[in-house]
Amino acid sequence: MPETSTDPSTSSAPPAKKTTGKVALNSSTSIRDLWLALCTQRRFVLTVCGAALGICLLYCLIAPNQYEAGARIALRATPTMALHVDGGDAAAASALASGQVQLETLAGILRGEQLAWKVIVAEKLYQSPGFLGRFGRRFPGFNPNAPSAEAQAYLLDRFARRLTVRSLPRTMILQIRFRCGDGVLAASVVNDLIRAYIQQEAETRMSGTDEATVR
pLDDT by residue (tens digit) across 182-207? Predict the structure, then answer.
């Protein structure tokens, strides 16, 4: 009966060293081919890189400057209830939640179209080059005292996209930011927005006092 040989040298599997050598050879060849291709097409590569750099530089020179002004408003919180030993944490959590609701309400008012339109008219943003964009060409006969619905919507939308009102985390502070092509105008818009809100609140309180007096 013939004997079966189990000598590893007669195995059909290729040696591990030869396989590793082939992988290294293929990798080296690919890198060399890539390098040769880049060298051959170096003019094209340099042209593409130069064109991209030129476009970026041209954009930086042509793009209008943008300025951003900001301010912060702190919501004055008043204690609505005394804290007791029992249930003190619940009372504090309730007061904090109430303050956050008031803060979001205030943010909504500052983002509202009523205050925005007051600022647009007060600052004459429809005439300011740093804000109006294509407004002058689209609405050449604009009259702020009798604006068309389309013109008013255009100005309000442009104002809203440049205004940011957000609450700072874990605080009772609102941050207001406005961005446009004129730094002085951006600061004036933020200040006018705050003044318009204060005036609106004063008028609301006065109206409420008058109604209570009449009753």
Answer: 999 999 999 999 999 999 998 888 87
Domain that holds residue 96: 67-81+88-214
In a domain? residue 8: no
The reply to whether 27 falls in a domain is yes
Specify whether 76 is located in the same domain as 43.
no
Give 153-206 as a 3 state SS string: HHHHHHHHHHEEEEECCCCCEEEEEEEECCHHHHHHHHHHHHHHHHHHHHHHHH
Written as six digits, the tokens of 22 are 């082939």
**Which pTM does this prediction carry?**
0.62
- The token duo for 178 is 């406005």
Contact (CB, 8 A) for 197 and 108: no
Looking at residues 117-130, what average pLDDT do you find? 93
Same domain? For 71 and 41 the reply is no
| Alpha carbon separation from 34 to 28, 41, 45 (Å, rounded) | 10, 11, 13
Predicted confidence (pLDDT) at residue 19 exceeds the cutoff of 50: no
Helix then strand then coil, % of the chain, to nearest 5: 65, 10, 25
128 and 182 belong to one structural domain: yes
In a domain, 4, yes or no: no
